[in-house]
What we know:
This protein has 104 residues and is mainly alpha-helical.
Amino acid sequence: xxxxxxxxxxxxxxxxxxxxxxxxxxxxxxxxxxxxxxxxxxxxxxxxxxxxxxxxxxxxxxxxxxxxxxxxxxxxxxxxxxxxxxxxxxxxxxxxxxxxxxxx
Length: 104
């Protein structure tokens, strides 16, 4: 029996309607943020979008920045930078762990 180690926050289980209710954003805005590559829902076999609690947090962050006058391209740029930093930090931690034979 395999155990799914995905955090509950990252499991894509909610529909766009629920996400709209949770965030107060219209479904149209949520789809727009997807088009702008700011959010990445999974799709079911029938094409239904599925979101996670992590996606809710991201959408709320986007909405707050938009409200503050930040443009979507600026948000995307900052998200890309943040992701690159996280990936670099993860790689460095892996190298350190390997160097000192540390197991997680």
